[in-house]
Amino acid sequence: MEMNGSHIIPADRETVWMALNNPDVLRQAIPGCKELEQIGENQLAAKVVAKVGPVKATFKGEVTLENIVAPESYTITGEGKGGIAGFAKGGANVKLTEVEGGTQLDYSVDAKVGGKLAQLGSRLIDGTAAKLANEFFENFSEIVSGEGEEAVDA
């Protein structure tokens, strides 16, 4: 599965960068995220509940941040396992650019799924992934701009 997108976050690039590297902000922004903790300098462990069509599962996994160019870009790679529901693994390139009205966040995702999830079909998986990405960016924008539950300390 490949997915690309771009979102304008109503905050300066440094604030957006700090939020993208803050496990508390990400925990609030990621749909279905139950746990997210830093386990190493550039590693996070996560527990996320996701529903894709008729399959609902709790995924546990780790992500690593690589190719870090602060406060401009990084690559996220990781894998999550959801028991009999299957697995998801892949990566995303994230780039931040200052624009009028805030910061443009561009992303490019390449992911693979297996197990029961893979049997659901790419249209359902792609649609769910796009919906979850939009929810993340709505939540993230609210938090970063100070409209969410917890504003980011700049």
UniProtKB/TrEMBL annotation:
One Pfam family cited in the UniProt record for this chain: COXG
InterPro entries reported in the protein's UniProt record: CO_DH_gsu (IPR010419), START-like_dom_sf (IPR023393)
The organism's place on the tree of life at top rank: Bacteria
SUPFAM superfamilies named in the record: Bet v1-like
Name of the protein this chain belongs to: CoxG family protein
Protein's organism: Pseudahrensia aquimaris
